[in-house]
Structures are given as structure tokens and as C-alpha cells.
Write a structure and sequence with these properties.
The chain is α/β, with parallel strands linked by helices. Among the domains are: 108 residues, 3-Layer(aba) Sandwich (Alpha/beta knot); 68 residues, Nucleic acid-binding proteins (OB fold (Dihydrolipoamide Acetyltransferase, E2P)), CATH 2.40.50. It is built from 7 helices and 12 strands. Strands 7-8-9-11-10 form a 5-stranded mixed barrel. Strands 3-4-12 form a 3-stranded parallel β-sheet, covered by helices on one side. Pfam families: Methyltrn_RNA_3 (PF02598).
């Protein structure tokens, strides 16, 4: 709450919660990216036709054979159809996801700010080892004092988990200096598959949209950790983290790279590697 004096009267203005405001803004950006990618795919399908589009991306449509009623019995027909159904689910890339819920108050047992930070890193490390897809933080009600300011346990938990999951080359762009990350140097790095080094090539790579002039009809510029920036196919707000699929197959001699913005799930499905976790908050277990 902010108090101001207007005409001799004391007026009280309520300030919006920065955490919920940032979370709402991130959800809006994700929705816009998904809509843009969906529209682009539909445009390509309408232009090329569905069979040509599937063939270009290496997807072969399956045709279900009719069972011979005179041959095998009904039991064998059912078992064969169930087996074909399971194979189709596996070939379509369907998979199960793992989510865990953790109360933010778990860090209250740590006696110092340094130990609280190290405890969060241990939880993130365990989640990465077991390929957890989503971490849900159940909000805590209290606050604890750090050497700089009073910190909310939920904000502390979320900020440090996201910091560890983010590739190191994006830390400076996505995480400004704040009290929650004062002892981030004590945390053990996760070193998960999408944490690439500058000399490691990958068709998919995490990046952040940077401030660079864009010509009309071109997409935003993205810093993907290479010495050269990448120009994408969509215009996204500056400072947004995105997943980029490069058009090149190796390091290029051009002045910049070219790529398309895709969903992180596509990178996970194509490479077959663990692609990190997402973090969200909940008021209680029912919202998980």
C-alpha cells in the first residue's frame, strides 16, 4: 500500500502484487506464442496439403487393417487391436508427465539464508535426476529476514528453482540482481541436457529475445548463447524466453543464424532428452 497526500487528505492506493502480475503476463505471452505457432502450422498445411506436410516432417499416416472374423477368435482379435493401439500411442509421442508438490515452508527448517539456498538446490537436483516435468510450490504465509530485506518463502523458492533450470548463458538477461539470489553461487548447477556450452551445437536451443532492430516482415532476434544472434520467424516481446529450432545443421559462416520458435515439448520429443521443468504456485493441494 502507498500513502499519498492529495489536497490535505490522506489517500491510500493499493499496489498490485508483482508476483501475480508477472505470472499473468507470462501466461499471456505463452498463449500468444502458442497461437502464432498454431497459425503458422495451419497455414503450411493449407498451402502444401496434409499428406505432403506429414511426409515433409517424416510422419507416416497409419491405416488400420480390418480383422479377419473367420480366422482368429474374438479374444485374439481384441488382444491384437489393443497391441496396435498401444503401439500407435507410443509412435505418436504420447508420454506420461511427472509433477511434484512441495510446501514452501520446508525451507523454514534451515537455520540460515545460505542453508535455505542450498536446500532449494538439492531439491532441484533431485527433480532433474528423476526427470520431473513440473514443480508445484504450495504458497507459504510467513516471511523470513535476510541480510537485505524480508523475503517471501514462495518467491524465494520459485526464483531459485527457475534460476537453476535456466541455461547459464541466460542468467544475466533473465535474472537481475535481487535478494533471493544473493547466495546463488552456493547452489550446485544442474547441468541438464539443454544447458549447452558456447561450442556445443544442437538443433534446438533455449534463448531470450533481445533488443535489436527488425526489418518489416522479419521475426525477433534471439540470443541463444552463440557468438552470433539468431533471427526467428515470429515477433515476440523483448526479454521473453523461447525455444529455437535452427534451420542450419551445424555452425555457419554467415553473420547470423536463422530459426523458428517452437514449443519446448517439441524439442523434448524430437531429441528424446530431458528438457527441464516448469515451476508454478498453488494456494493448497486442491489446486495442484
Amino acid at each position: 500500500m502507498v500513502k499519498t497526500v492529495q489536497g490535505g487528505l490522506l489517500a491510500v492506493k493499493r499496489r498490485a502484487c508483482p508476483k501475480r502480475k508477472a505470472q499473468f503476463r507470462a501466461n499471456v505471452i505463452k498463449t500468444k506464442i502458442a497461437a502464432a505457432v498454431r497459425a503458422k502450422v495451419l497455414k503450411q498445411v493449407a498451402k502444401q496439403g496434409l499428406p505432403a506436410y506429414l511426409q515433409k516432417h517424416g510422419v507416416t499416416p497409419k491405416t488400420q487393417d480390418k480383422p479377419d472374423i473367420k480366422g482368429p477368435s474374438k479374444t485374439s482379435i481384441r488382444s491384437k487391436s489393443d497391441k496396435n493401439h498401444n503401439n500407435e500411442q507410443q509412435s505418436d509421442g504420447c508420454r506420461t508427465t511427472i509433477s511434484i508438490a512441495i510446501p514452501a515452508s520446508i525451507i523454514d527448517n534451515a537455520q540460515s539464508f545460505e542453508l535455505k539456498t542450498y536446500l532449494v538446490s538439492q531439491i532441484a537436483r533431485a527433480a532433474a535426476i528423476y526427470c520431473v516435468d513440473e514443480i508445484i510450490i504450495i504458497e507459504g504465509r510467513g516471511k523470513f529476514n535476510s541480510s537485505l530485506a524480508k523475503t517471501n518463502p514462495t518467491e524465494f523458492f520459485v526464483r531459485n528453482l527457475e534460476y537453476l533450470e535456466t541455461p547459464p548463458y541466460l542468467h544475466k538477461a533473465l535474472f537481475p540482481v535481487c535478494p533471493e539470489l544473493k547466495y546463488s553461487g552456493l547452489m550446485n548447477p544442474l547441468d541438464i541436457p539443454h544447458h549447452f556450452k558456447v561450442d556445443e551445437w544442437s538443433q534446438f536451443r533455449e534463448g531470450v529475445v533481445i533488443s535489436r532492430p527488425v526489418k518489416k516482415g522479419n521475426g525477433s532476434w534471439v540470443n541463444t548463447g552463440f557468438k552470433k544472434d539468431c533471427q526467428t520467424d515470429l515477433q515476440i516481446e523483448e526479454g521473453t524466453r523461447v525455444t529455437v529450432k535452427f534451420q542450419q545443421t551445424d555452425f555457419t559462416t554467415k553473420k547470423f543464424y536463422e530459426g523458428t520458435i517452437v514449443a519446448a515439448e517439441e524439442a523434448r520429443r524430437t531429441t528424446g532428452k530431458y528438457w527441464g521443468y516448469t515451476v508454478r504456485t498453488a494456494d493448497n493441494l486442491r489446486q495442484c
